[in-house]
Amino acid sequence: MTELTVMDAIGRALFTILSSAAPPLLMGLSVGLLVSVFQTVTSIQEQTLAFVPKIVAVFVSLLFFGPFILGNIVGFFQEMVRSLPTAVIP
């Protein structure tokens, strides 16, 4: 196993992590931004108003993007398992 092979595997792992985590994070970020703008406009400073919609949005995005995320992770795992014999025995 060469350094190039390890760096390539690490790069693919990081890309898989980022592409799997991006949908729920972006959904939570956008809902949090909308809620904070709403709170600023209406001068409502309730903590649960900021927290609950973000949690609901993240759960909904996990339900919606769940198949994509799972397929992404399973595809990466299958690719790593297929490349295992060439990585161990050059």
Short description:
It contains two helices and no strands.
Structural description of this entry:
- The mean pLDDT is 90.
- The longest helix has 42 residues, at 47-88.
- This protein has two helices and no strands.
- The radius of gyration is 19 Å and the shape is elongated.
- It is an all-alpha fold and 90 residues long.
- It has a domain at 30-80.
- The chain has helices at 3-42, 47-88.
- It starts with a helix and ends with a helix.
Helix percent band: over 70%
Total beta strand runs? 0
Give average pLDDT, whole number.
Answer: 90
Unreliable spans are none
| Total number of helices | 2
Structural classification: mainly alpha
Q: What string, H for helix and E for strand, traces the elements in order?
A: HH
Radius of gyration: 19 Å
Distance between the termini: 7 Å
Strand content: under 5%
Overall, the morphology is elongated
* Largest pleated sheet: none
